[in-house]
What does this fold into?
Amino acid sequence: MAAKTLTIDGRLISAAEDQTVLQAAKDAGIQIPTLCHLEGLSDIGACRLCVVEVAGSNKLLPACVTRIAEGMQVRTDTERLRHYRRMVLELLFAERNHVCAVCVANGHCELQALALALGMDHVRFEYRFPKYSVDITHHSFGIDHNRCILCTRCVRVCWYIEGAGTKNVAGRGAECRIITDLNQSWGTSETCTSCGKCVQACPTGALFKRGSAVAEMERDRTRLEFIVNAREKKQWIV
Amino acid sequence: MDRLKIATAWMGGCSGCHMSFLDLDEWLFDLAAAVDVVYSPVIDVKVYPRGVDVCLIEGAVANEDNLELLLQIRERTRILVAFGDCAVTGNVTAMRNPLGNADPVLNRAYLRPEDLHPRLPAEPGILPALLPRVLPIQEAVPVDYYIPGCPPPAARIRAILQQLVAGQVPTQTGADLTYG
Amino acid sequence: MDHIDLLETKNRELRTRKPLCLRVCMAAGCMSSNGQAVKDSLEKEIRAAGLADQVEVRRVGCLRLCCEGPLVASDPKGELYQKVTPDDAHAVVAALKNGNGELKRGDLQHPFFSRQMSIVLENSGVVDPERIESYIAADGYQALHHALMEMEPKDVVDTVFRSGLRGRGGAGYPTGLKWSTVAKTSGDRKFVVCNADEGDPGAFMDRSVLESDPQRVLEGMAIAAYAVGATQGYIYVRAEYPLAIARLNTAIRQAKQLGLLGGGIFESGFTFNVEIRIGAGAFVCGEETALLASVEGRRGTPRPRPPFPAESGLWGMPTLINNVETFANVPPILRRGAEWFAGIGTQQSKGTKVFALAGKIQRTGLIEVPMGMPLRTIVEEIGGGAPEGNQIKAVQTGGPSGGCIPANELDTPVDYESLVRLGSIMGSGGMIVMDQSTDMVDVARFFMGFCMDESCGKCIPCRAGTVQMHALLEKILKGQATLRDLQRLEELCDMVKNTSLCGLGQTAPNPVLSTLRFFREEYLHRLRSLPISPGIPILPNGSHHGPPVAEAAKT
It folds into this structure.
C-alpha cells in the first residue's frame, strides 16, 4: 500500500492511500466530530458533523467518506465548520425529545458529549416536541424513539455485522423511524437474534437494555470493532 | 460604583438548581458581601423590584404566573440568565409537551377513577392556569446567558457569578458545560 | 429487421394513410377533460357519415395548449379546435367538408405556436404514441440504424459532445462528457438509465414526452447504450404517471416485436433491452444515486458522490443516467448532425428546452423554445401575459430547487448560466408564472413544505433543517416573527445549502433565498419589532409587545 502526504489543519501527515480523511486525521491525533460513523461499520456520510474544508473544493466534504489524496489540504476546525456543527446538534436536539436528566444514557451519550464539546449551551430553534412511543416488547432490549437521531448505526450493524436484517428505516423526512421487520413490535420479530449489537452501537439512549435506569446504559464500542477485525483480518486479540 | 443587584427566580422546576446554588455554602457570605440579593425564593420579597442587574431563572415557563413574572423580570433586569436545564431546554417540565396540551396531565392527576372527589382544580385569580405548552425561557423572552445542567454544579454557578460580578462576559468552556 | 424493412414499414404507413385526419389529443391533460369521449364520439360520427375510409381519427400526444383542451387538430385544413365536447363531433366532421359548425377555433398564428421550435416535441401531437409504425413513418429509428451501421461508438459520443447537448434534468452537465466517461470506464456490464421521475410541482414535460412519443426515448436510450457499451436499460418512471407507463410498456413491446430492442438489433451484434421500474412516489428518487438504489430494490436514499454513477452505478457497474428530454434530443442530433443542433440556442446552451407553462398566465401548456429566448417572450408573447390584465410579478423556474425571477429581470435569456446568475436554475422545465396577487413568502413556504415532506430523512440538515425553516416561514406568514427569526432563517438556509448530502437539501433553501433576494420587503413587512431592548418581551405565541416594524416606521 502506497502512502500519500497531505496537510490537515496545517500539519503535514502521511497516510495510506486507501484511507479516508477521517482515518488519516484520527491516526494523526486530530479529532473530527462524528455521529453516524462507528468503527467496524461502513460509512454513509449522513450526519454531516464530520464535514471538512478541502482546498480547491467549493463544497464541504464529509471526512468519513472522502478519500485522501496527495497534496490535499484539509481544515477540520474552522469557525465556519464549528458554526455548522453546532447547528447540526441544535437541529437534532430540537427534533425529538432528548431529556438528558432522565435518560438511560446520561453521561454515556455521544450526542450529549458532542453538545458539550462543541459548546452548545442552548438550542436556538423551537423544540418540536413530537410524540413518539417506546417499544419494550423485546425480552431484553427496548427502543425509545424519542431519543433516536436516525444515525442508522443499529440498522447497519444488524444487516452487515449480525446479518439478521431486522432493523430498518420506515417513512421519510422527519417522519423517519427505526422499525423492526415489517414495522411490528420488537418482541414479535422472528428475525431478531437478540444479539444486542444494535444496543451496543446506539450513540444515544434510544436503544437500551431493559431495566437500565438513568445514566446506567453504558456500552462497549470496541466489541463491534473486535468482531469485524476477527472476521476480516483474523485478529482475535485486541 | 453601586453594588450589583442580583435576583433569582423559580418557575416550572424542582428547585434543584436553587439547592445547587445553596451548595455554595460559605461562599454565599462572600457573595452577600459583594452584591445585594434583591429577589429570590430564599428571601422574603413579594414583588420583583426594578433595576436588577442579574437574574438567574430556574425552571421552564409552565403556567400563566410564570409567564407574567418572566415578562416582568425581563423588563426590569439587565442580564437574564437561564439557570439549569428546565430553563434552557424545558427538560422534565416540558415532557408534557408531546401530549399536545395540559389536559392529559391534569386529567391524569385529578380525574383518576380512584379519587374520592375527582375534580379539576380551578380557582381563578388564585391558581394560575397551565400554559398549553411549556416553554424554555428563550422561547418566551430574550436570554443573555445560559447555564445548563440538571442541576448545574455549584462550582460552575460560582464561576459564572464571579465573572458577572467582575463585569466580565461569562464563558463556559467545553468541560464546564453539562446537560442532565 | 434491417434497413429495407424499416423503410418499407415507413412507406407502408404513409401509403395507407387516409386523406383526412383528425388528430385528437390523448395526453393526460386532455384525457382528464373528457378527451376519450371526444375521440369516441368523433369515430362514431365519422362512421355514421360514411367517411370511415376517408378520415382517420388518430390518437396523438400533447397538442400543447393544455388550458384549451380537449384539443383536436384537423388535417390537411390545418385547424385546431379547442374545448371540444363529444357533442361537437358533428360540427368537427362537418368542418372537414367545409361546413360551418359552431367550433372554438384556435389561432395557430398566435405566438404560442409561431414562436415555438420543435425538436423534442416534433412528433408530439403528430404520431400515434401507441403505434410504432407511426413513429417509424416520422423517420423513427433511422438515427439508431445510422449509428449502428455507420458509426463507431466513439463517433456517436463525439457527435453528442459536439452538439453541445447538456442534461435536461436540471443541472446542465454536458451530455457528451457524461457519455464519454461511461464509455471509457470499464465494467463487466454497463447500464443506461432514463430518469423519468419528474416530480417538480407544476412540471409535466417528461410526462408529455413519454405520453406523446415514447419510441423517441427508447431510440435515444438505444443509441446511448451503443455509444457507452451498455446492454441493459431501465426507465425509472413515477407511479403517478400511469398513462406514460402504459404507453412505454406498449412501446417496448412493439419495439421488441420489430427487433428494434432485444438481441441483434438491425442484424448487428448490438443487444439492448429496456425494463421499466416504477417509483413509489418519492421525489428524492429523481436524485440519481437514490434512483439507482431504488432500481436495485433498496430504500431510495442518496449516497455521497464520488463515486459517481458513471464509474459505480447500478450494482457497482458503470451507469449512464440521463433525463427523458435528454434522450429525446438524441435521435434528431444523430439524424441531422451535431452542427445543426449546435447552431440552435446560445453559446453555452444549445438546442431547445421544453417548458411546462403554468400559473397566472393566459395560455398554459407545453412549449418548446430555443435556448436563449428571453423570459419575457415566453411569458408575455407565448403565454399571453397574466390573465385579466394583471401584472406579472415573478416567474418561478426549477421547482423546489429553483428560484423566483422578478418581473424586472424578464429580459433574461433562458439559458443555464443566466438563470443561475439570478439565483434560480433551469431545472427540468417547470415554469410557474405569478402575478401581483401572489404572496412570495407563501410561495417560499409552499416549496419549503414540499422539500420538508420529500426529504428522505437520511442527513440531518435536510431532514431537520427543512422542518425548522418551514416553521420559521409559517411564523413570518402569521406575523409573529421578529428580525431574529429572519436571521435564523437565513442562517439555516446557508447551513442546509452547504452541508446537506444531496441536491435536494443543497437546493431546498433556494426558493427562500431567491424570494429574500428580490422580495425582501415582503418578509420585512411581516416582522414584528425586534426586542432589541431587553424590556420588550416576546409572548409565547411568538408575538410580542410593540407594533409591527412597518407601523412603527410610520409613526
About this structure: The radius of gyration of chain C is 25 Å. Chain C has four domains: 16-108, 139-342, 352-438, 445-524.
